[in-house]
Structures are given as C-alpha cells and as structure tokens.
TrEMBL record:
One of its GO terms (biological process) is circadian rhythm. It comes from the Eukaryota. Disulfide bonds join 60-96, 76-92, 79-105. Gene3D superfamilies: Crustacean CHH/MIH/GIH neurohormone. This is (Mediterranean fruit fly) hypothetical protein. One of its GO terms (molecular function) is neuropeptide hormone activity. Signal peptide: none annotated. The chain crosses the membrane at residues 25-44. Belongs to the arthropod CHH/MIH/GIH/VIH hormone family. Keywords: Cleavage on pair of basic residues, Disulfide bond, Hormone, Membrane, Secreted, Transmembrane, Transmembrane helix. It comes from Ceratitis capitata (Mediterranean fruit fly). GO terms for cellular component: extracellular region. PANTHER family: ION TRANSPORT PEPTIDE, ISOFORM C. InterPro entries: Crust_neurhormone_CS, Crust_neurohorm, Crust_neurohorm_sf, Hyperglycemic.
C-alpha cells in the first residue's frame, strides 16, 4: 500500500519535473562557468609551485649540490608525469625528499638498486639527516 502511494503520480508531476529539470540545467551552467576559470587557473598554480620549490623551500638542511639536488628533483618530476597528480609531486619532495613517497616513486619508476644507493647518498648530503624511506637494497 505504501509502495503504491509512493509510485502514484500526482496530476501536476510532468510540469513540475520539467521545471526542476530546467533549474538543474541552470545550476549546471552556473557551476560550469565557475569551474572553468578555476580549472584553467590550476595548471598555472602547479607550474609556479613546481618552479618555486628549491633547496630552501623544501627545508633542506644539508649541503646544496646542484647535481644531486636536480637528480632528486627529477625523480619527483618523473613520478608526477606518471600520475599527473599534484599531491604526489608535493609529497615526493616532502621533508627534502625524505619521505616514504620518494621511496614509492623510486619503486614505480623502476629505478635500479645501484641508482637507489646513489640517490640515498644524495639525500643524506642534501637533506643533512639520515634517510628514512623504506628501502631494500640487496647487498
Ligand atoms: C605564475 O608565474 C608567472 C610568471 O612567473 C606569473 O606571471 C603568474 O602570475 C604566476 N601565477 C600565479 C598564480 O602565481
Ligand atoms: C656534487 O655531486 C656530484 C655527484 O656526486 C659530484 O660529482 C660533484 O663534485 C659535487 N659538487 C660539489 C660542488 O660538491
């Protein structure tokens, strides 16, 4: 009985539905107009963000060696290119490359273990503190 009442169509239903439908379209158009500038603004922000991140912004406390720094930075760039995810880019560089995300990026980028040992040394120099990202370098 309840179900029948629920599905019973009131006489004014089609008209109301049409009205609601056009209102939804209006809302969609407004959302669309608001979202477009936001979306187009996003890549700019990301771009500036990535350009700006440097030794000091990342709060690196070690010794700045351009070769080492850009090699580590490159890992995060490649990782970002793979996923196109801004948060990955940020997390990878977190704590001056000393995060589990950097380790995850090394894994997905299939960096060979000799290279990882080298990069671990780079982080030690650049970061100024022992690395803590999970590693399993075969000896
Ligand atoms: C990004 O950088 C460009 C050039 O350096 C600058 O013109 C623009 O205003 C910046 N955008 C933001 C959102 O900071
Ligand atoms: C920076 O690191 C590279 C690679 O380990 C090394 O060859 C170079 O001599 C270093 N440069 C400085 C200025 O320490």
């Amino acid at each position: 009985m309840v179900a029948i009442q629920f599905y019973a169509v009131p006489p004014n239903e089609p008209k109301q539905q049409r009205k609601m439908c056009s209102r939804n379209i209006k809302i969609s158009v407004v959302l669309f107009l608001v979202l477009i500038p936001l979306i187009t603004a996003l890549p700019h922000n990301n771009h500036n963000l990535s350009k700006r991140s440097n030794f000091f912004d990342l709060e690196c406390k070690g010794i700045f060696n351009k070769t080492m720094f850009f090699r580590l930075d490159r890992i995060c760039e490649d990782c970002y290119q793979l996923f196109r995810e801004t948060s990955i880019h940020r997390l990878c560089k977190k704590n001056c490359f000393d995060s589990k995300w950097f380790g995850e990026c090394l894994k997905v980028l299939l960096i060979p273990s000799e290279e990882i040992s080298k990069l671990q040394h780079f982080i030690k120099v650049i970061n100024g503190s022992p690395i803590s990202f999970p590693q399993s370098v075969p000896t």
